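User: Hand in any protein.

Assistant:
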Amino acid sequence: MRKIRLLEHYTVTDLKLMLEKQENIREYKEWLIIFSVANNKNAKAKEISTFIGINKRKIYDTVSKYNKLGKGWRTIKKWGGRRDQNSFMTVEEEKKLFKDITEDALTGSILTYHDLKKLVEKKIKHEVSDDYIWVLFKRNNWVKNTPRPTHPEGDVEKRKEFKKNFKPYWQPKR
């Protein structure tokens, strides 16, 4: 196993201060890795991972990112959330679009997601996937109307009687 080499962008006391300031658990763990590696210069990744309870691969990745990016290593986040540069529309544009089409949807002018897909593609001048439309629905709290299982005014006793007396029939296998 190879030893981990950490470039000294921060002193150990600075690392301790940075570690104490963290409020997010993910950031705390990453600063903990850097702090542990800085304090244990001859330690191997397996020893540190056993001691602090973090995967060895995570230790290698974090130290590599720290060495490569320097003091700004925590500014790049690669997880979760909505990235505006990767989105077709901003949250405000989506809300405005759904507000504009709510009346049409309630009157029955928009029946399927294909109708909304055409509107979205026209607005952004770009073709989108079906999944994107379903994500839009979910993100803007729209639900798919489905038929109810039974009629609310139906007779419950008649249904039970029908179930009891329904004769199953057999069909030959094909």
The radius of gyration is 29 Å. The chain has eight helices and no strands. The mean pLDDT is 84. The helical segments are 12-21, 25-39, 45-52, 56-69, 91-107, 113-124, 130-139, 156-165.
